[in-house]
Amino acid sequence: MAIKGTASRRIHYAHIAEDGKPGASAMPPRLWTDYPDGYSFKSGIAGEGARIDVVLMPNSKSPGEYISYYCKENHLKTEARKPGDGVSNTWWGMMDGSFTLIATKILLAQQAFIRNLIAGHIIMTDDDGNEIFVAADGKVLCNTGVFKNVQVSGDITAGDPDGKHIHLDPEDKAIRIFDAAGNECATIDGSSYTSTSVLPAAPLTLTVDPIGRQTLSVDATKTDLTVKKSAAATNLTAQVAQPGKIKVTLNAQLSLTPAPTVNGQRTTGNGQLEMSDTAVPQRNAIAALYCVIDTLDSAGTKTLRSTRVCVMSLTPWFNPDGTISGDTTGGDRTFTVAVPAGRHRISLSLEASGCTSSASYTLNLAQIVQDSFMSRHFANGFALTRDTLSYLLALYESGAFKLMLGGDLYIDKVKQPRVVYAARVTDSGTASVKQFVASATPTFSRLTDTGQYRFVFPASCGLTADNTFVTATGYGDIVGGGSHPVKATVKTLTAASGALTIDIWISDDDTPNYGGFYLEVKKY
Question: What is the dihedral angle through the alpha carbons of 257, 263, 269, 272, rounded to the nearest 10 degrees?
Fold first, then answer.
């Protein structure tokens, strides 16, 4: 058989099965020169590797054509056994001659190598006769397969086109989700917003007042050596509409001079301590410059929360002769403090003990960097928002993307609980609560019944005795001390008028005692 065109140099193994039984496998034709010397040609003899090798030889009478030969006898490749001259020999048989056109109604073949194929109807089946691939009537159906490096032009539908499916619509920049009845139940419309919608809002820069270099000083050299705090020299008030951060940048310098005392201790030359009848500097002197950010009530008069950041601190320098010298440090500082929504006050303060100290600073920048979110509601109730129980919230923090999921979250089809409250109760005679998570703040009380505490969650939390899971763990000692571990027990969960009351019972033995504990409340 003469073949026109360039011969393929790739090896493709094609295995043929006839009546369900393994049969000979014909190799795609390759040039004789592609086979290495000593290559073992096979003729498809049963039990000797059911494979038939086919080689191509150039047709000297018609340049650009190749003549096909099939292996008749198993043998190793040598130059003496090369096929050629358009005839058969002991080792090779020439395949049927070249035909310009073959027209037939039915063609049955175990295997075919076709350079160019034009077909109106193609069906590929598996061993059970199931249609795997069908190309017919201008449509292609593929029931299984792996596609790599695929570029698709036009719409994409995944699922049942008449039932539950997802439709990707590049033209409208949309993702459409359909339910089992084929009704559109959700649409993510990318044409109405871009990725910039979830970028942080531009920072709000506060006006610094007073402007320029400011100085603080403190004197803590009195006999009692109590800590002295200076008045705040900078007082900025800012309103934050939603949770975010306040960023502060300043340049500061701090110095101290330790105060003398009588009959103090000093270090001798060999590093030992000795008592001195003369005045020597205080060894416990320290000074620190703080940035204080207070969260205020709506009127701006009451402090609800206060956060202190140590900008820089300083202790005196100890000389080899045992004396102590003052010291100075300084530099640029930048830091951020997370704050809730509300009104905030920014101030600087200097604290010292056992020394005189001074600090100078320039508040270069004060900004409010708010967390931002993308909000979008859809007709079916699905939403991208931050103020409902059905939300997906996208956040950026310091340039890094974060994602918070709200509403019901399922992992491996198991609905996950939502932590609505977490806190630690301490009791040293008077009980106090430190809240870690508080979607809604409950009322807290220490009951007159020994060892009992009560949390009452309002109806807005949606907590019931059936959907609430409470964990209580003992913490610290019981009031008055004790030698046994503190045990915390959920005594009762009582729902009334929409509110949920949780009573916790504390003991370290058979008798209830007041004491500390951790509490976590989850909603299912």
Answer: -110
Q: What order do you get walking across the sheet with 184-189 strand by strand? A: 156-159, 165-169, 174-178, 184-189
| SS3 state at 334 | strand
* Per-residue model confidence as pLDDT tens digits over 95-121: 865 566 677 777 777 677 777 788 888
Counting other chains too, the contacts that 168-171 makes at CB distance below 8 Å and 24 or more residues apart are: none
pLDDT of 405-424, one tens digit each? 555 666 676 777 888 899 99
**63 vs 57: CA distance, rounded Å:** 11
Could you give the CA distance from residue 503 to residue 491 in angstroms, rounded to a whole number?
Answer: 5
Residue count of the chain: 524
What Rg do the C-alpha atoms of the chain give, in angstroms? 42
* CB-based contacts of 417, cutoff 8 Å, min separation 6: 469, 522, 523, 524
Pairing of strands 30-31, 54-58: parallel
**CB of 442 closer than 8 Å to CB of 455:** yes
Residue holding tokens 């350079």? 115
- Is this model's pTM higher than 0.85 or not? no
CA distance 354 to 352: 7
Task: Read off the pLDDT of residues 464-507 as tens digits, 9 standing for 90 and up.
Answer: 999 899 999 998 889 988 778 899 999 999 998 889 999 999 99
What tokens appear for 114 in the block?
């076709």
